[in-house]
Amino acid sequence: MTETSDTARFKPAPLGRITSGSVQLDAILGGGFPSNSINMLMGEPGSGKTILAETLIFANASADGRPILYLTTLSEPLEKVVRYLQQFSFYDDEKLMSGAIRYESLGEELAKNGISALVPKLREIIKTMSPKIIVIDSFKAIHDLSTSLPEMRQMLYEVSGLLTAYEVTAFFLGEYSEDQIPSYPEFAVADAMVELARKKQGTRDERYLRVLKLRGSNYQEGLHAFRITEDGLHVFPRLTSPDIPMRYTANNERLSTGVEGLDRIMQGGVWAAGATLLEGPTGAGKTTLALQFILEGLKRGESGLYVNFQENPTQLARSIESLGWNFDEARKKGLHLLYASPVELQIDSILVELFRTIKEHDIRRVVVDSIGDLIVAASDLNRLYSYLYALVQHFIARRVVCMMTLETTSAGVVPMEGQISALTDAILRLGVELDGGKARRTLQIVKARGTNHDLDVQELRITSRGVEVG
């Protein structure tokens, strides 16, 4: 159908964007912060608001364009702000020396004249400097100086009109809480609101950000983890399920596990796009079987990724060599390792590296050893379930076969065991039984979708060649 002239006339222009300085955060925001907008960066002291704002201004500064202005109020002295800024890798002294970025303090004017000093000062700055971005840190300090709600509303009305008329993008930073949003008038004029927060998790803090409002943008909702590093904010977008075409064409390809006897009782192996769970107690052979699965892929020219949280690379290399492989040779054939200590494990943080490795090296087999470490590291089990569901769906969509391990104990049910089982196509239960005072390892297929499998308990042996079943 041909577009009419009236339709073409009212077609909206693309929304201009300001980069946040982080590729991942820009993706969450649907491309970045809108140009010529008013944006609130809120959170408790120490949550990362100032670092985010400073990363942003250095990413957008250019000597041949309109300058960027960073205004401090009655919070930290200007000299202190700049001193700490210099510790980050994104700091560029040339951008300050050239005037592309300017730092000024409003503290003296605000202390003397209250919030009535803000509009004249902004008007003077905008007319003389024509900045493209203005940051006010902390805007909450200005709110606290106001003597009445009408005074605050009037000031915001004038500030909003001034910024809009001169096409200035503004960022207001403040120690606001979510319950203040309905009653504080600055949120009514904001085009975007981003909250940064910290949550205590065991002996460490986990940091999250979420977008509460973003006009004209299809942004990603929910909690997104981040870390503060020497490069600024390192953001890990929340994992969501992939877009999977709604078609009902079966993929009947199976992949060998590399375990003698196991492929036979599983009708050829595991599904080529699916997930298998290995569950059992310590010493039952879960890691050995998982490694054998990855090494079998290397024999067949299929790159593999082993993600683990317990054995460091040195320990894992020893396990690989005990199966008759040279570790360096395995790496040359396509073995990739992703190790994260369970002590500092942040479940979102491994995703960026995981998917980068899968894409860059055409990974066909993945092992996650172990799911139990993710359960311990997670601060919210409901969020962890969503994370695992989306992770498995991404593997399926990419035609990657996944094997996960889960350690069980005699003390009781493992948290989320039933939910995790529901995510998988097959469940192999490994065990250690005493028979006349003699221990033996066992394996039972308790679930295998689309497979006419044997439910009987099989003997499992670990030999110099690896795992054997039956």
Summarize the structure in words.
With 470 residues, the protein is α/β, with parallel strands linked by helices. The chain folds into two domains: 10-236, Rossmann fold (3-Layer(aba) Sandwich), CATH 3.40.50; 254-469, 3-Layer(aba) Sandwich (Rossmann fold), CATH 3.40.50. The protein has 17 helices and 22 strands. The protein has a nine-stranded mixed sheet with strand order 5-4-6-7-3-8-9-10-11, sandwiched between helices. Strands 16-15-17-18-14-19-20-21-22 form a nine-stranded mixed sheet, sandwiched between helices. Strands 1-2 form a two-stranded antiparallel ribbon. α7 (118-129) packs parallel to α9. The longest helix is centred in the middle third of the chain and has 17 residues, at 149-165. The mean pLDDT is 86.
Q: What is the makeup of the main sheet?
A: 9 strands, mixed
Q: In percent terms, what proportion of residues is strand?
A: 25-35%
- Order of strands across the main sheet: 5-4-6-7-3-8-9-10-11
Count of helical stretches: 17
Question: What's the CATH architecture of the largest domain?
Answer: 3-Layer(aba) Sandwich
Overall pLDDT level:
86
C-alpha end-to-end distance: 65 Å
CATH topology of the largest domain: Rossmann fold
For this structure, what is the CATH homologous superfamily of the largest domain? P-loop containing nucleotide triphosphate hydrolases
Q: State Rg.
A: 28 Å
Unreliable stretches, pLDDT < 50, 5 or more residues? none
Helix content: 25-40%
Overall geometry comes to elongated
Give the beta-strand count: 22
Total number of domains: 2
Content-based structural category: alpha/beta
The top-level CATH class of the largest domain is Alpha Beta
